[in-house]
């Protein structure tokens, strides 16, 4: 009978979260990266907090991780928990910068948030800060 557990992995595979928690830095491996999508590892109890703090609830400081990502490309999609501090996402765009905040909804409930920066922001987006 096949396993139905959502945590099922083939032998030798590891979860994305396990791999992400071992990553301690981001180093550009190519200067031709068009865009970067990332979701940071978070504290296991992030959902118990009323607000997800990018700086305090990510082991490497999510604001600094974003700054390093900007060294690779300005076209960034930042995938974060639904209770994220949206003001922090807006501040990452910098003065005069643009960000599009998208709420990812499933069955009528917001599950996660994706913030788009750089050329990933749609021209007609009204979700800018």
Compact summary:
This protein has three helices and four strands. With 129 residues, the chain is of the alpha+beta class.
Any overview of this molecule?
With 129 residues, this protein is an alpha+beta fold. It has one domain: Vaccinia Virus protein VP39 (Rossmann fold, 3-Layer(aba) Sandwich). The protein has 3 helices and 4 strands. It has helices at 16-22, 62-70, 86-92, and strands at residues 36-38, 76-81, 99-106, 109-117. Strand 3 (99-106) and strand 4 (109-117) form a beta hairpin. It starts with 15 loop residues before the first helix and ends in a 12-residue tail after the last strand.
| Topology order in helix (H) and strand (E) letters | HEHEHEE
Instruction: Enter the CATH topology name.
Output: Rossmann fold
Sheet with the most strands, sense and barrel status: 4 strands, mixed
Q: Unreliable runs, pLDDT <50, ≥5 residues?
A: 1-30
Specify the CATH class: Alpha Beta
- According to CATH, the homologous superfamily is Vaccinia Virus protein VP39
Total count of strands = 4
The general outline is: globular
List the main descriptive attributes of the protein structure presented here.
single chain, 129 residues, alpha+beta, Rossmann fold, four-stranded mixed beta sheet, 4 strands, disordered N terminus
């Amino acid at each position: 009978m096949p396993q139905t557990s959502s945590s099922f992995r083939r032998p030798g595979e590891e979860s994305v979260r396990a791999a992400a928690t071992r990553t301690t830095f981001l180093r550009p491996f190519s200067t031709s990266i068009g865009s970067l999508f990332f979701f940071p590892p978070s504290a296991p109890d992030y959902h118990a907090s009323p607000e997800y703090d990018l700086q305090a609830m990510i082991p490497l400081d999510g604001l600094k991780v974003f700054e390093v990502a900007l060294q690779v490309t300005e076209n960034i999609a930042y995938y974060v928990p639904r209770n994220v501090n949206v003001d922090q996402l807006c501040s990452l765009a910098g003065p005069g910068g643009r960000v599009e905040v998208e709420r990812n909804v499933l069955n009528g409930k917001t599950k996660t948030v994706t913030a788009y920066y750089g050329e990933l922001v749609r021209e007609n987006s009204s979700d800018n800060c």
